[in-house]
């Protein structure tokens, strides 16, 4: 079954709106596509598809948080 797109409304501050306009021009992408990319980035850990098997992407959220707290950036345990 094809994924059905839905519309939603997002309220932006004027600063965010201006930054989005500049990013859109610089990247050559529509504002909508930039917003979708941002949403996919933020929600990647919560999606139902299989998790990536490479690098830091295969770590769980709690493992990534532990690395951030550790400060070394190395995952040794």
Which terms summarize this structure?
77 residues; mainly alpha
Write the layout of secondary structure elements.
Elements: H1 14-27, H2 31-43, H3 61-70
Task: Explain what you see.
The structure is a single chain. The chain has 77 residues and is mostly helical. It has two domains: 12-46; 49-77, no CATH class. Helix content is 48%, strand content 0%. The longest helix has 14 residues, at 14-27. The mean pLDDT is 80.
Provide the succession of SSEs: HHH
**How many extended strands?**
0
Coarse shape: extended
Helix % is 40-55%
Q: What are the segments in which pLDDT stays under 50 over at least 5 consecutive residues?
A: none
Tell me, rounded to a whole number, the average pLDDT: 80
User: How large is the count of helical segments?
Assistant: 3
Q: Which radius of gyration do the C-alpha atoms yield?
A: 17 Å
Find the structural class using helix and strand composition: mainly alpha
- Straight-line N-to-C gap: 41 Å
Question: The biggest beta sheet, please?
Answer: none
